Amino acid sequence: MRESAAERHDRLLGLVRERGSARVSDLASQLGVSPVTARRDVEELAGRGLLDRVHGSVSWPQESAPGAAAGPGSTSSGLVLGMLAPSSTYYFAEVIRGAHEAAAKAGARLILRISDYRPQEDQSRTEGLLSAGAEGLLVAPGWQDPGDPAAFGDWIASLPVPTVLLERRPTAGSPLDGLDRVCSDHAHGVLLAVRHLVDLGHGAPLLMARADSPTAVAVRSGYAEALAVLGLRAPQDVIDSVPAELAPDAFEQAVQALREAVLSGVATAALIHNDVDAIQVVQRLAELGVRVPEDLALIAYDDEVAALADTPLTAVAPPKREVGRHATELLVERLGRSGGAPRRHLTLLPQLRVRDSCGARLP
């Protein structure tokens, strides 16, 4: 089977870590790839902060070497921490950034593997982290479907090093439930959004959401909980959202369903997961004669790019960077203990960032 880019990156990092430094041309020969491919790989890994690159050579970053200088107020621990994430962009870019900052402050080195939301590859990616010298792990599995934790999660509980789960809530009572974890409380974030719209004088808002990630699933369940807490009933079924670029017909169908709900008076407010979808929905609704916020008050979920919309979108902002930071601090603390300390489930609360898309309070 053809080697993937991620697997080749694992081998490249392993070679550099063993040697301390290497010429790019030598790495190309060792990896069995062209010099162009090796240079491209090196540029990508250097861009992630996983390698240092100077004049045709690469080296293992000095911050990870024993005795290397650490950041202000920290001492070098010489620890190597591994992080498995489903993506290095959008939501998880901030989680990774927070983890990297906390690792640097502790004098530790953070190395990264990306699964591209392919949970069947999580285990091999994590084994790559261990082979690269990781002494502790931050793990955000690439689960998407409800059955993924059972199908692709049991191996995590048997990892040979301390492990902290990130933004993942396993089934209560399962082996994974006994691991340390740090998560955003998405149910609380949805409640903030629904309550804000109701306080502005709207009835229960519609939910338009994806169903292709743990965050999306948590937003959907949080919506039902929020309506129950506030004594409200959903104006209609959840509108299933899909990426416009991947399924344009299904996206158009979802937008038309939202437009019909607005024009028929079923709802005057909506919560949309995620930001990118929300921006595209607002643009398409405008083409169809539905204005935000005049005709529809709208809140987005994630707050990655919501502020950049033509009409800046009010958004729920999960504490992504803080999740990465607290998880890394917990892992470093766990590695410094001889054992016996109780496991911890740390839940962080999202914030609501109010902008223009909800409009003023209704008369």
TrEMBL record:
<dbReference type="GO" id="GO:0000976">
    <property type="term" value="F:transcription cis-regulatory region binding"/>
</dbReference>
<dbReference type="InterPro" id="IPR036390">
    <property type="entry name" value="WH_DNA-bd_sf"/>
</dbReference>
<protein>
    <submittedName>
        <fullName>DNA-binding transcriptional regulator, LacI/PurR family</fullName>
    </submittedName>
</protein>
<dbReference type="InterPro" id="IPR018356">
    <property type="entry name" value="Tscrpt_reg_HTH_DeoR_CS"/>
</dbReference>
<feature type="domain" description="HTH deoR-type">
    <location>
        <begin position="5"/>
        <end position="60"/>
    </location>
</feature>
<dbReference type="InterPro" id="IPR028082">
    <property type="entry name" value="Peripla_BP_I"/>
</dbReference>
<dbReference type="Pfam" id="PF13377">
    <property type="entry name" value="Peripla_BP_3"/>
</dbReference>
<keyword id="KW-0804">Transcription</keyword>
<dbReference type="GO" id="GO:0003700">
    <property type="term" value="F:DNA-binding transcription factor activity"/>
</dbReference>
<dbReference type="InterPro" id="IPR036388">
    <property type="entry name" value="WH-like_DNA-bd_sf"/>
</dbReference>
<keyword id="KW-0805">Transcription regulation</keyword>
<dbReference type="Pfam" id="PF08220">
    <property type="entry name" value="HTH_DeoR"/>
</dbReference>
<dbReference type="InterPro" id="IPR046335">
    <property type="entry name" value="LacI/GalR-like_sensor"/>
</dbReference>
<dbReference type="InterPro" id="IPR001034">
    <property type="entry name" value="DeoR_HTH"/>
</dbReference>
<keyword id="KW-0238">DNA-binding</keyword>
